[in-house]
């Protein structure tokens, strides 16, 4: 199967801890997915969505070094395979099991890579992965803002968390490829921009606009800017660690760059370096172009949403605006391969970025928590119906070699694909000879 565009949604599986590790915010539990997972999966067909950002809860699946509890994953991924839904598997979303501590733990990268390999061996039909979701945001919220997990607020803690997160992601990609040679990694990462409020804010804004690229620079083996090199070296990264990332740049050939964009992703920078939300000044298309020019990889819009407000059309209008941006990106020559409204259902406590456990509903889903479709769900369903046959006609070159779950067989898929190509070439050669003889 080759596809030129993926319409997707996701099931929110954040698991950060707060209150110095005493409280875990498990979004799957809060949003009722553990009870209603069969219903949640059945909703996809009604929307005509075949691609789902989804992952097992890391804290209850990875129960110790080399120890895994696959009971929930076996049920859910078995059902996804039965439904022939293509999962983009999100293995780590903002938190780790209690026994691993937090992202300051230097053992995390290797231990997580072993978990990723174990998952790939258990579910070899899975092809698409986001090993670690939003590495930059996770490091920022956990070790710079002091909101989650280690709840630290220093540059050294931020660099430590970031290098561990990215190293874990890189090692996981390599280990998954040992199992599934045609695996594709869609790195969901926040796309940010910092606007200087006045001339005195230009310098801090420039630093922040360099720092926003750090996670992907390291992940894709790109040399960081000189100022960022000094920053990471001054805050705990060694030359050996830095060259670890540079020496694994070949992994980028298996990657699609996922750019997440929310109304909070653009920031207004004050002269003292503090920031406030700026709203969507540039928008997804301009900021994605900046990331594409830097990394030159195919793109997917991997997350967006907006709360349904008092008028009831706020999310619907945001969906239209994001889709207009996706079309703009595509029409200006950037190879964009997918769009995601995140998430399938409403979420809980994202009004405080999961910093407080208030059990307040964030009405951002395609469905509410009673599994009733929202206006944006109806609009997304119509958008998919309107555009699903139009986009593929734009180019036969921008195709993604996907293998739906039910087409996977236990023997190596790449070898079967190679044999099929050889067979077709042989048939073509026979036809050419026959025509020539006539």
UniProtKB/TrEMBL annotation:
<dbReference type="InterPro" id="IPR017853">
    <property type="entry name" value="GH"/>
</dbReference>
<dbReference type="Pfam" id="PF00232">
    <property type="entry name" value="Glyco_hydro_1"/>
</dbReference>
<keyword id="KW-0378">Hydrolase</keyword>
<dbReference type="GO" id="GO:0005975">
    <property type="term" value="P:carbohydrate metabolic process"/>
</dbReference>
<dbReference type="InterPro" id="IPR001360">
    <property type="entry name" value="Glyco_hydro_1"/>
</dbReference>
<dbReference type="GO" id="GO:0004553">
    <property type="term" value="F:hydrolase activity, hydrolyzing O-glycosyl compounds"/>
</dbReference>
<protein>
    <submittedName>
        <fullName>Glycosyl hydrolase family protein</fullName>
    </submittedName>
</protein>
